[in-house]
Every structure is written in C-alpha cells, then in structure tokens.
C-alpha cells in the first residue's frame, strides 16, 4: 500500500466546484445511479459514486497515469478519517469561512458560464439549491485541510534533507523537465465611466427609497444584490472584525447606527448600499446590496494608455519593471512580488512553458523574445473583471534533466511534501485505532487499512 501516493491523490481531490458540477452533470446524463456504501469511518460514508466519478475524471484527463480504484479509495478513506478525527480533536472551521469559500467557487462558476442565469439554465437548479448541495462538501474539504495542516504544521525541510532526497533518486529516474519561463505582468483594471457609475448609484438610491417607504431591505437584497453569497441571506454579511472589510465599506459602515442605511459606497467590488444591524466592541454586523458594472462594456482606453506610458519608461530604463509593478499594478496576486507570477505548486518563479500554461499567456510568450515587454493586451481577472496588462518575458530555461542547481525550489517542494506525507502516514497508523473503519468486501483485494483491528 503506497501511502505517499494515496495522500498525494487525496490532496488532488480538492477540486473547484466546476469540476464537481460537471461530473455530476455527466453522471446524470449517463443515467448512472451509484449509491452503494463502500466505506465508512465512524459517521462518514464513502459511496461507490464518489470513487467512480473520481476515477472517470482522472481517466479522462490522463489515461496513462490514472491511479487505480484501490489508490483512490484509500485516499477517500483517509479523507474521512481526517474528518472523523477532527471531531474527536475538536478541529472546526467557522461558518463564515465556509461561506467565503462557497461564494468564491460560485463566482468562479459565474465567470465560467457568464452569468447566474446561465448557471441555472445549465444545471436546472437555482443558485440557492446549488449552493446548498455544495455547502456540506466544502465544509468537509476545509475541515480536512485544517486537520492536515495541524498534523504537518511543524514539518520543515533543511537543505541537507533536500540534497539527501535528490541523491536518493536513481540517475536514470531523474525527471526531464520541459522548458520553463519567468514572467511578470502589470495589470490595470477598466473602470466604469461617469454615466455607468451614475446608473448604479441611481439604482441603489431607488432601492434605498423603497426601504425608507417600508419595503424590506432583506427581501430587496435577495432580488437585486449581485453578491451571490450574501444575497441569498438578504445581504447579511455576519459579524466582521475591524479591518476585515475593504476600507471604503468599513469606513461607511461603522458610522451607522442600528437599522440606519448608508449613502451609496463605491469599493473595488462595486457599489454598495449598507445597513447596519449591530455593533459590539471591535465587531460589527451589517448587510448590503451590491451592484456591479457590466464588465463587458467597460472602456479599456485609459488602462491601455496608462500601460503604454509605463512600457515606454521601462524600455528606456527610466523605470524598473519590478518598481513599476509594485507602484502601479492592480493585480494583488503579483504586485508585491514585483509583478512576477508564481507557480502555484512550487511557489517558485519558474513556470512550465507547455500546454498546462494559460493559452493566452502561452501564445503571447511564444511570439516574444526574452527580455522584452509586450504591448498592452486585454486581460480577464480571476474574478471576471476586464483589464489590460503588459507582460515581461524575464527568462527562459531550456528543457533539462532535474538538478539541484537549477531546480532546487521544485526538489525542495517535493521533498517537503514527502516528509509531510510521512508524518501523516505515522499519524494515520495511530489515528485508525480511535475510529470504526469499514471497507466493502468488493475491495478486499486492495488491502486498504489491512492492519486496522476494527476493520471488517
């Protein structure tokens, strides 16, 4: 039983809502109903459909390297063991964190499908129903992550251990890495013009008047708010600590008395009408109605002009790219790093220059020379906003067999992951004694949890 591989597979199980939704849709389309319980850890169940959907997803994406059903089932059992132990060890996740993750995934869905209406049409379910369907699985994922973090939080890796790990890899087994690139970007967001802003302000002021005449703020929020998360709850944002919300929102909110409404407030997320519900100490409880501009109709002239001028200054060496990114880029993910993009897996600057890269970025780099900066290009942010960006092609590294000098960050990341997996493996051997574990007879040849005394 390869625990390291099963844990790795378990980590991959945390996918975006779109993946879960597409799998569910595909299964329904095929008329598959697979609801047999094939695993149980205390009060947590693994269904055969869980296993089959994962297996089919891997098979579709990479038929050659698809893990076996036994390996996937082991990952699912470990997932449930983490959840069961989290109850015993009182590891919990706040409801607000669950809602934040849920809202984030719904926003990604909205960006993918174009609108909330398109999502409803695609799945034949209301947004509220889709969120209710997903809320439980998100809670399990977040609790599982928190439990895993608790187990591995003290695990570190030293340069000596990285070197030992690398030297343990047979020479003929060293991976051949594809071309890698180091890339930076400076992003400027499109802003609504005066007419577009005024249209949103007018709409919110009309809503405010309706509340003042006796209509329910809560019901109007459910109808009009474009905040998918709070809109379903009548705009309720729950209690927030000072400093948690964006400054324009908080500055307006904390001045309000209970049940009082703000004037229209503009923030980076759009335009808000805020109603205070309660304040206690350093916390406040508010609700809002959010309206956003139609990002498809925003004028990109100003961001283009601005980036053109920045590009000229950088090309003349009057301004360094890193300094310009820190001062002027509106992409928070790369701004602090001097505009440089970070590989999400290794957290390093080198990114594989292959089909795994965003196609728009790949084709831009393919026509550029190292050391150059692109002309302003249209760009869509992760949250769906229209923007322009300039791309800095800082470096390109040729394909090569992995080595410590050029690939230390990658090797270190793998070595640390292995060390953490070992820690979870050791934890698992102890933790399985504290819970009831059942694996269906159909999977007896998998040897999953073979040593568990209470398995049957």
Itemize the secondary structure elements and their pairings.
Elements: H1 3-12, H2 17-29, E1 37-41, E2 44-47, H3 48-61, H4 69-88, H5 95-113, H6 116-123, H7 127-152, H8 159-167, E3 176-177, E4 180-189, H9 194-212, H10 217-224, H11 228-231, E5 236-241, H12 247-253, E6 265-267, E7 270-280, E8 283-291, H13 301-315, H14 321-328, H15 332-335, E9 351-352, H16 359-366, E10 377-380, E11 386-397, E12 400-401, H17 404-431, E13 437-439
Antiparallel strand pairs: 1-2, 1-13, 3-12, 4-9, 4-11, 5-8, 6-7, 7-8, 10-11
Helix content: 40-55%
Rounded Rg: 25 Å
Q: Termini separation (Å)?
A: 18 Å
CATH hierarchy: architecture of the largest domain: Orthogonal Bundle
Total separate domains: 3
Q: Quick one: biggest sheet? A: 4 strands, antiparallel
Q: Which structural category do the helix and sheet elements fall into?
A: alpha+beta
CATH topology of the largest domain: Triger factor/SurA peptide-binding fold
Average pLDDT score: 84
Protein name: Peptidylprolyl isomerase
Pfam families: Rotamase (PF00639), Rotamase_3 (PF13616)
GO molecular function, one term: peptidyl-prolyl cis-trans isomerase activity
Keywords: Isomerase, Rotamase, Signal
Q: Could you explain how this protein is built, in words?
A:
By secondary structure, the chain is α+β, with helices and mostly antiparallel strands. The protein folds into 3 domains: 3-162 and 405-446, Porin chaperone SurA, peptide-binding domain (Triger factor/SurA peptide-binding fold); 178-191 and 299-400, Chitinase A, domain 3, CATH 3.10.50; 194-292, Chitinase A, domain 3, CATH 3.10.50. The chain has 17 helices and 13 strands. The chain has helices at 3-12, 17-29, 48-61, 69-88, 95-113, 116-123, 127-152, 159-167, 194-212, 217-224, 228-231, 247-253, 301-315, 321-328, 332-335, 359-366, 404-431, and strands at 37-41, 44-47, 176-177, 180-189, 236-241, 265-267, 270-280, 283-291, 351-352, 377-380, 386-397, 400-401, 437-439. The strands form 4 sheets. It has a 4-stranded antiparallel beta sheet, with helices on one face. A 4-stranded antiparallel beta sheet has the order 5-8-7-6. A hairpin with a 2-residue loop joins strand 6 and strand 7. Helix 1 crosses helix 17 (404-431). The longest helix is centred in the last third of the chain and has 28 residues, at 404-431. It is globular, with a radius of gyration of 25 Å. The two termini are 18 Å apart. Mean pLDDT is 84; it is low at 1-34 and 451-456. Keywords: Isomerase, Rotamase, Signal. It comes from Sandaracinomonas limnophila. This is Peptidylprolyl isomerase.
């Amino acid at each position: 039983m390869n625990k390291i591989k099963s844990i790795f597979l378990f980590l991959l199980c945390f996918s975006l809502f779109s993946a879960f939704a597409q799998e569910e849709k595909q299964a329904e389309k095929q008329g598959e109903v697979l609801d047999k319980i094939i695993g149980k850890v205390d009060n947590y169940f693994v269904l055969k459909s869980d296993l089959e959907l994962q297996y089919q997803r891997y098979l579709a994406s990479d038929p050659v390297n698809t893990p076996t059903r036994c390996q996937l089932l082991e990952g699912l059992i470990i997932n449930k063991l983490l959840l069961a132990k989290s109850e015993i060890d009182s590891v919990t996740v706040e409801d607000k964190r669950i809602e934040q993750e849920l809202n984030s995934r719904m926003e990604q869905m909205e960006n993918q499908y174009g609108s909330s209406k398109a999502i409803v049409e695609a799945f034949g379910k209301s947004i509220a129903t889709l969120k209710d369907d997903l809320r439980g699985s998100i809670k399990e994922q977040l609790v599982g992550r928190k439990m895993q973090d608790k187990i591995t939080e003290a695990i570190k890796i030293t340069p000596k251990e990285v070197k030992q790990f690398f030297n343990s890899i047979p020479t003929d087994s060293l991976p051949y890495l594809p071309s890698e690139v180091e890339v930076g970007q400076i992003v400027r967001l499109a802003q609504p013009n005066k007419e577009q802003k005024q249209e949103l302000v007018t709409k919110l002021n009309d809503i405010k008047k309706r509340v003042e005449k006796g209509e329910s703020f809560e019901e109007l929020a459910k109808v009009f708010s474009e905040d998918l998360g709070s809109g379903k709850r009548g705009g309720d944002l729950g209690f927030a600590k000072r400093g948690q919300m964006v400054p324009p929102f908080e500055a307006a909110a904390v001045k309000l008395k209970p049940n009082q409404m703000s004037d229209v407030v503009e923030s980076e997320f759009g335009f808000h009408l805020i109603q205070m519900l309660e304040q206690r100490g350093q916390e406040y409880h508010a609700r809002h109605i959010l309206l956003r501009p139609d990002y498809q109709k925003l004028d990109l002239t100003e961001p283009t002009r601005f980036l053109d001028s920045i590009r000229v200054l950088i090309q003349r060496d009057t301004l360094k790219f890193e300094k310009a990114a820190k001062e002027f880029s509106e992409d928070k993910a790369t701004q602090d790093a001097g505009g440089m993009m970070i590989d999400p897996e290794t957290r390093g600057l080198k990114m594989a220059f292959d089909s795994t890269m965003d196609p728009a970025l790949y084709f831009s780099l393919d026509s550029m020379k190292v050391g150059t900066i692109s002309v302003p290009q249209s760009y869509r942010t992760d949250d769906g906003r229209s923007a322009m960006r300039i791309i800095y092609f800082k470096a390109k590294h040729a394909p090569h067999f992995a080595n410590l000098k050029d690939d230390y960050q990658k090797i270190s990341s793998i070595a640390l992951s292995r060390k953490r997996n070992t820690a979870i493996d050791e934890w698992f051997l102890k933790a399985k004694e504290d819970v009831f574990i059942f694996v269906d007879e159909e999977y007896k040849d998998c040897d999953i949890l073979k040593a568990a005394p209470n398995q049957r």
